[in-house]
Write a structure and sequence with these properties.
By secondary structure, the protein is an alpha/beta fold. 39% of the residues lie in helices and 14% in strands. The chain is built from 13 helices and eleven strands. The strands form three sheets. A seven-stranded mixed β-sheet has the order 2-8-7-6-5-3-4, with helices on both faces. Helix 5 links the parallel strand 3 and strand 4. It is globular and about 55 Å long. The chain binds pyridoxal-5'-phosphate. The site of pyridoxal-5'-phosphate has 14 residues, from helix 4.
Length: 361
């Protein structure tokens, strides 16, 4: 690595994404590969999205609308908030980076759960700020311990809800109690990438806190239930003065025009969202049942993925699944646990079949 880099860059690792299907086919000479590694929507986006993209294609020589005007209007109406509370980005990943750029000074502390979304920590280090990592307690984000780690240097707190990779939630009651202990000058980021999948009635809607005037940034995305991961578009809901800061650090055309059109069409088709949620609930029930049959412990989930315990070295299980054309997610910080995305009925069957072969059950 070049000695010219800023010293804190040396501590950053390259992000290791879920393996792409094409790469696995190429490397292993397989013709059939399914990917249940990155929590993508197995049905893809609404058919209306595909139509909207086709209709839009004659316009791609123009720069996108850098202000995302129409999408902001649509989201403002959808959530009954003002458009100046909305910040749209090239995937919600990008917002985590913009939060760092806009708010973190060297030495600021950022409290985050681990394991959780793996971008909070490097994007904190990027700014020479200090990640304060708080282990999960019984696979749940440990808000009590996180509150106890607040100091005068704390600037940002990340709460991933539901938490990735465990699928667990913190309840409204727990989050209310937590927020009562957090001083108003600390930004609480509620990462709700899987919000639309949640079934548990005790789940807190981050938007309610925003509407009450709290200093929260709610992260949502079109990558998961809306099926647009490949187009890269997500958004934050936050108080206008926070959005104003974020707007200053973003690139002028951070969200491409096709993604904006696709997101508009996706948001307008809530029947499709219901259909995806329904398929996910069915897949979840099936996987619970099969895991139980073959005595594989799992963590009940509120999202579209399940953390399960294979009972042997997770690196081995990952490789063995890969050899059989099933990409799942390991390397999560557990010895024997891996994460599988809930797929179509067919994909779930293939995954269970593969797992049974590998575990000999
Ligand atoms: C997938 C995911 C995101 C966002 O992904 P984008 O594709 O960048 O919108 C954010 N947070 C969590 C916890 C996720 O799992």
């Amino acid at each position: 690595m070049s000695k010219l880099a800023r010293p804190n860059i040396l501590s950053l690792q390259r992000y290791q994404p879920g393996k792409p299907i094409e790469e696995v086919k190429r490397e292993l000479g397989l013709s059939q590969v399914i990917k249940l590694a990155s929590n993508e929507n197995p049905l893809g986006p609404s058919p209306r999205v595909k139509q909207a993209i086709e209709n839009f294609l004659p316009n791609i020589q123009y720069y996108p609308d850098g202000s995302c005007y129409r999408l902001k209007q649509a989201l403002a109406q959808f959530y009954n908030i003002t458009h100046d509370s909305i910040f749209i980005t090239n995937g919600s990943n990008e917002i985590v980076q913009q939060i760092s750029l806009a708010f973190l000074e060297p030495g600021d502390e950022v409290i985050m759960p681990v394991p959780s979304f793996p971008r909070y920590e490097p994007l904190t280090r990027l700014m020479n700020a200090v990640p304060i990592e708080v282990p999960l307690n019984n696979f749940r984000v440990d808000l009590d311990t996180m509150a106890s780690r607040i100091t005068s240097k704390t600037k940002v707190i990340y709460v991933c809800n539901p938490n990735n990779p465990t699928g667990t939630i913190v309840t409204k009651e727990q989050l209310d109690a937590f927020l009562r202990q957090v001083p108003e000058n600390i930004l609480v980021v509620l990462d709700e990438a899987y919000y639309e999948y949640v079934e548990d009635g005790a789940f807190p809607n981050g938007l309610d806190y925003l509407k009450q005037g709290r200093n929260v940034i709610v992260l949502r995305t079109f990558s998961k239930i809306y099926g647009l991961a490949g187009l890269r578009i997500g958004y934050a809901l936050a108080p206008p003065d926070i959005v104003n800061c974020l707007e200053r650090v973003r690139e002028p055309f951070n969200v491409n025009a096709v993604a904006q059109e696709a997101a508009l069409a996706a948001l307008a088709d809530q029947d499709w969202v219901r259909k995806v949620r329904e398929l996910n609930a069915q897949g979840k029930a099936y996987l619970y049942q099969e895991f139980t049959k073959i005595q594989v412990p799992y963590i009940p989930t509120e999202a579209n993925f399940i953390l399960f315990d294979a009972g042997k070295d997770e690196r081995l299980v990952f490789q063995q699944c890969l050899q059989k054309g099933v990409i799942i997610r390991g390397g999560l910080g557990y010895q024997t646990r891996l994460r599988v995305t809930i797929g179509t009925g067919e994909q779930n069957k293939t995954f269970i079949h593969t797992l049974r072969e590998i575990l000999g059950r």
